[in-house]
Write a structure and sequence with these properties.
Oligomer: single chain
Largest sheet: 5 strands, parallel
Shape: globular
Number of strands: 5
Helix content: 55-70%
CATH class of the largest domain: Alpha Beta
Number of domains: 3
Radius of gyration: 25 Å
Structural class: alpha/beta
CATH topology of the largest domain: Rossmann fold
Length: 456
């Protein structure tokens, strides 16, 4: 790792705190890392690093992104993902053997999952047997759980508690991340003395990102662009509109001189995005309109990066119209965004745009609701199961299921039920409803709470 890289230095801090607080603590079974939301990607990088041959800590880390749907199926889902990863690691296992570090682990007992077997106990047996098979004993195993999606944090906490009660084997630790001040995964540690550790590591991530992003030639348009963007972010935080416009204009000037249409369009949309903090500012709609026009020009000139910018611009236009309570116009923009994204096979973005159009029409223009709902449902049919679990398509599918059921569209009801059951289990409607209530949203464009909409 490059020790002069500001991000690498932040990861070094995590490693140092881990060594002091976790390594060698024999009674520890669960480590809860308390993070700020913006630090999530950094911690993901930390876990990926430690799960690779380049890891610096003494423990052997295995990181899983398995989605948490409910506490009764999560252990089985982890076992399934574990075996798939193991089976796809032939090259690594062969390399370990050639270096005299062979992993002598028998996966056979875990391949035939039965609904009659206690899945939690089986998972713990798997972890124990895998740890015992690691070369260069004694070694400790850390299972880092970073679910792509969590349907219900209370159920996730209940699952963790169940594993502690069952008895996590010696030499095995689980680690999860939680948010500072939220305590979504807080567990009463009285029944588990010495087994649970919650720790927050003070980091300077924003400073590290700014140093990394603005390092290099200050006359380089991209570096100058990033410098302006950081200053605009600080101005937005301080609610200083004058300073915002100063750095925004500098960003437009420097990117225009570059001759790069994609960068120039990005500057307009970034500037507009910042102005959503000052939504009455007359510059906002002008920037959106010009940004979309420049992106179209860039696309016509063969700059493929401008396609995603144009999709983003349509979403921003929809969000702005929604703020101004021009609901019909907002729905039109979201639909235009969805159609363009779908046309170019950007399916998660298309589904998000359809969802925004569907949700807004349900609340503000019911005559358009069902036609848009059907289009949204159709757009997600080619999506993979993983794409569905990490998108809002399940919300659309659940609403369309209700529509199809009411109208006796038997084949569609069966089609949706089969697919959602395969992905979320037999109680899929309850699971999707939990996801919806947790307000899991993609951040493709500004998310506009209804209470922030204003009179035009």
């Amino acid at each position: 790792m490059n020790e002069h890289n500001p991000i690498a230095l932040e990861i070094n801090k995590i490693q140092s705190h881990w060594r002091k607080a976790v390594t060698g603590k024999e009674t520890l079974r669960l480590v809860r890392l308390m993070i700020q939301p913006e630090e999530a990607r950094l911690y993901e990088g930390f876990f990926k690093l430690e799960s690779s041959p380049h890891g610096q800590l003494d423990e052997v880390f295995v990181t899983h992104l398995t989605s948490f749907n409910n506490e009764d199926t999560f252990s089985a889902a982890i076992i399934k993902d574990w075996l798939e990863t193991y089976d796809n690691s032939t090259e690594l296992l062969q390399s370990m053997q050639e270096k005299g570090n062979a992993l002598q682990w028998d996966a056979t007992p875990y391949r035939q999952l039965s609904s009659y077997q206690p899945q939690d106990k089986l998972l713990l047996q798997l972890l124990q047997s895998f740890r015992e098979a690691l070369p260069h004993q004694p070694r400790e195993l850390v299972l880092a759980l970073l679910p792509r999606q969590v349907s219900d944090t209370r159920s996730f906490t209940s699952w963790l508690t169940r594993l502690l009660k069952t008895g996590i084997p010696a030499g095995v630790k689980l680690t999860v991340v939680d948010h500072v001040g939220k305590d979504y995964l807080q567990i009463n540690d009285r029944p588990f003395p010495g087994q649970i550790l919650s720790m927050h590591i003070p980091l300077q991530l924003a400073d590290a990102i700014q140093k990394l992003a603005t390092a290099g030639n200050p006359n380089d348009p991209e570096i100058s662009f990033r410098k302006c963007l950081f200053e605009m972010g600080n101005a937005a935080k301080d609610k200083d509109l004058q300073r915002m416009h100063y750095w925004g204009q500098r960003m437009l000037d420097t990117t225009q001189r570059s001759g790069n249409k994609g960068l120039f369009a990005t500057a307009h949309l970034s500037y507009a995005g910042m102005l959503f903090n000052f939504k009455r500012d007359p510059m906002l709609p002008q920037l959106l309109e010009k940004g979309a026009r420049i992106a179209k020009q860039g696309l016509q000139q063969g700059d493929v990066a401008c396609l995603s910018l144009l999709i983003q611009a349509y979403g921003y236009q929809g969000a702005y119209a929604q703020i101004r309570r021009n609901y019909s116009t907002a729905i039109d923009w979201y639909q235009q965004q969805a159609v363009l994204a779908e046309q170019h096979q950007f399916l998660p973005q298309a589904v998000m745009a359809w969802y925004l159009a569907v949700d807004l029409s349900r609340r503000k223009d019911s005559s358009r609701y069902y036609p848009l709902l059907e289009k949204g449902y159709q757009s997600g049919i080619p999506m993979t199961d993983d794409e569905i679990t990490s998108s809002v398509y399940s919300f659309i599918a659940a609403d369309y299921y209700n529509y199809a059921y009411t109208n006796k569209l038997t084949s569609i009801v069966q089609e949706i039920n089969e697919r959602m059951t395969r992905i979320f289990g037999k109680d899929w409607k309850e699971e999707v409803d939990k996801l919806k209530k947790s307000k899991v949203q993609a951040l493709m464009q500004p998310q506009i709470p209804e209470e922030e909409e204003e009179e035009a």
